[in-house]
Known about the structure:
The complex is a heterodimer of chains A (347) and B (217). The model of chain A has no long low-confidence stretch (mean pLDDT 90). In chain A, helix 4 crosses helix 5. The radius of gyration of chain A is 25 Å and the shape is elongated. Chain A has helices at 44-51, 74-82, 99-109, 114-127, 143-155, 173-190, 201-207, 225-230, 235-245, 251-256, 282-290, 320-332; strands at 2-11, 18-28, 33-37, 59-64, 67-68, 84-88, 161-165, 193-198, 210-215, 218-224, 265-274, 293-304, 307-317, 336-344. Chain A is built from 12 helices and 14 strands. By secondary structure, chain B is an all-alpha fold. In chain B, helix 5 (89-113) runs antiparallel to helix 8. Chain B is elongated. The interface between A and B is medium-sized, with 30 and 21 residues.
Amino acid sequence: MIELSNISKTYGSGNNAVYALKEVNLTVPRGTIHGVIGLSGAGKSTLIRCVNLLERPTSGSVVVDGQEMTRLSRAELNQARHRIGMIFQHFNLLTTRTVFDNVALPLELMGEKRRAIKNRVLPLLEMVGLADKAKQYPAQLSGGQKQRVAIARALASKPNVLLCDEATSALDPQTTGSILELLRDINQQLDITILLITHEMEVVKSICHRVSLISAGKLVEDAEVGDFFTAPRTQLGREFLNDFLQLSPPKELIERLSETSGEDTHPVVRLTFSGDTVSTPLISRLARECSVDVSILQAKVESIQERTLGLMIAELLGTPAQTQQAISYLEAHQLQVEVLGHVQRNV
Amino acid sequence: MSSAMFDLILQATLDTLYMVAISGVISTLLGIPLGVMLYVTRPRQILAMPVLNQTLGIITNIGRSIPFIILMVAIIPFTRMLVGTSIGINAASVPLTIAAIPFVARLIEGALNEISPGLIESAQSMGATPWQIICKVLIPEARGGIITGLTITLVTLVSYSAMAGAVGGGGLGDLGIRYGYNRFNPTIMLITVIILVVMVQGFQSLGDYLVRKTDRK
């Protein structure tokens, strides 16, 4: 449905050229929700704007719904944009129009008749749960309601694709949840392909099927959401995951951690369980079979869509030989083991 | 006050209103398009045309930098060509209009500048043409600022029209100078000033009311 091939975008030229995007390839199949996650300034906004040519890529091809966007004339591009809805972080509703008239705007732009507009707008407002607010002005609405109006507006021209530019970043967590639910319904019931950009893992976790990680204008990772949350392949991916899980050793422990191990130290490890290993009583077996004691410092179970992910930070108490054996035992049972460092014994 | 005096004052008031109305309407009709052009032809705007933008900017600035009293006499040949005379309220309306057009244009440009760029971007994402963006987004969204700008213009025109009176333009300024100053009649001078104050207050109140009425923020 969306196919970006070798997209680059530079600002300026010659030695002053700044790359916003560098040779980005991205394919979003029909009916899927694809998330692009990255830090501020990584190129997310530029990337999503290249899809409907709000930003024209310096090179590369943009195919949406089988149409090469970069070769369209101005008029053809405007036609194509009717088939691509977009919502924004700050909603971008017209303050001087009522809720009804905001949703009607794209239809007016297409030259629809007053009657046809009414028949289209009212069901849309019904769908986003704001039928009773039709005559109000955006200033009278909450952030979540504004985004619902923006969603209704984006859907008015019956698009096949919906682009979401940080659509929940200005909302509180609870409202974020309800907007994401609405987006998922739209995806499932109307079969609309969604490309969204975000800096929040929560958004990716809740509704995306696939996720790409963008860094300094390049896509550095592209994976199924379940895989990304259980085993990110890049350092940046791991940082996003750790931030999201808020699982890092307590501060006073970090201060005591040292890189080097010795006869009188214990390893501190981060264990990642996924799939079947979550439901296996590995820790108690570890204690029996390897004679090490396990002191659990932090633990968490997350369910990422249909998959379960367990995380644990633990200190393994035993002789160096025993703890080494324990780590091998865990790895043999498909656990990811990361040794964070070593601490002095008897503290 | 004699009834002749009263008639004189009434006529002068109507003359001032006439000059302000004529120049206000024409400068609005021409100043709004110019202001919109100044805005939409900026670099990276919806109809980016940097050369045209700079040219319009320079012309506007020239118009704004000439002192009104000099403009008035400088364009006398043009005024004669247009209305056949260089004195009277019709003649005075010409330089008033010329002076007000760039004034309106800059105020309109400023009002458009207040619109969030995100609104333009979202209209573009809906496939709006530049003309549709101007008519359906820019002007409606800037209407509060536009009304404020036009109010300022009317108030300025009242004061300029008084200046026009000094060179035979008619109206309250003319009356104040001839009867109040040249004939040492402080009553006439005072009445002239009071009427001008009331007029300006009236325009300002009307403008404020309209802004409040259209405000949706």
